[in-house]
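Blinded run. Sample ID left blank on purpose so nobody reads anything into the name before looking at the predicted structure. Input follows.
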Amino acid sequence: MERRQLIFGSIDTVAASASLNHLGNLLGSGEAFASTNNDKLLATTAKCITTGLQCINLCRKELAKGDKAMAECLSTVTDMLAACVALQKLAANESPHVTAMAKVCQKALQDCAKSCEPHAKHMSECRACMDACRECEKACA
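Blinded prediction complete.
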């Protein structure tokens, strides 16, 4: 593993851990953290990240079986994850760029939910991802 991969991988792991700790606080468990103006964004992006990772796992499995219909879903979920991680980091830091990133994130969330919708009736991972995206989209408004 290259040094750069190790460093950035560690940073992402720490960020994900902090997000999960914050989400636990919002759900009533874990240590108390100071409340921010962005608690709803932090909670909904955390849910999108979790369900999105599960959706990606399903998409990869289905693509490996030859189900080409999952390609668009995989692409939009990957974009949504990138946007949600960025928004979550900005929201946690109470950055002045939260509003601008929330607008970008809204589009990625809309695209992801739209791509998951055809699969949502028969794949619970796609349903969960779609629902989380729609909830997060509302929080971004």
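Unblinding after everyone has recorded impressions. The two ends are 40 Å apart (CA to CA).
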